[in-house]
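Two entries, shown back to back:
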Amino acid sequence: MKGKERAELRSEAHHLSPTVHVGQHGLTPSLIGALDDALRTRELVKVKLGNKDDVKPKDFAASLAAATSSEVVQVIGRTTTLFRENPDLDKKRGDIPPWRR
């Protein structure tokens, strides 16, 4: 992903609320499934990391991205934003993106 694309996605993600919250158990198959579903339907997803994790947020975001085949857009504090394009979604020029719906 190029810097300009990443900057556009960061500006779009600014207004989003966290869709997925990481609980006390950390990286579990159910968390990966929920995040995968959110990425499939919305493409751009904010994830709120738990406070009790000993792992650094950037490392945890990288492991989430690797588990879901997505890209890390940004990490701010304990909140990360992930993006994965879904070619199956109907996209027409002039339509609003799926994360705004």
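entry 2 starts here
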Amino acid sequence: MRPRYGRVTLRPLSELDSGAWRRIQAHFRDPEIAHLNGTPPNRMPLWLLKRVLKADARRTDRTTFGIYDEDDAYIGTIELYDVRGSSATLGIIIGEHSHWGRGYGPEAIHALLGYAFQELGLDHIRLNTFGDNARAQAAFRKVGFREVTRSRIAGGRIDVHMELHRGAWLEQVGQAASSSGAAAGRGVA
């Protein structure tokens, strides 16, 4: 299964080529991305990183995809983890700085939410991000996530908890479809 939305296509880790794996390693080593994720830059050799991520992807409580843009270039990863019952946690890394702030994150999230709510039948998706990551919060709000709580964590950073329920997502998707249909109808002469 390759979920799609807008310009992005999601591919299972099993379909990633060696170039994509090298980009994953570069993303995990990037100090700015590590800071946004609250982790130190990863220094694992590629063979070990690949082994660890593939083992995680085989878990029944996790689904991980590579994110590809409209030119079929690998740009990041997105996943559902802690899948339990009807809920899961979302994580995303748009690792290519050239794609930051250009709408790829929300499109990848839309693709994953379609998969989560329609294919997996989940009802509730949650996530955590840091208070100083305004770009991520904006992307999450754009697809319908709402902030639930904020809490101070070790090191003084603020942890922002957000969530989205299937009903709210379906309502937003329905509204977007009707407004795009109305806009398309207005363009017909």
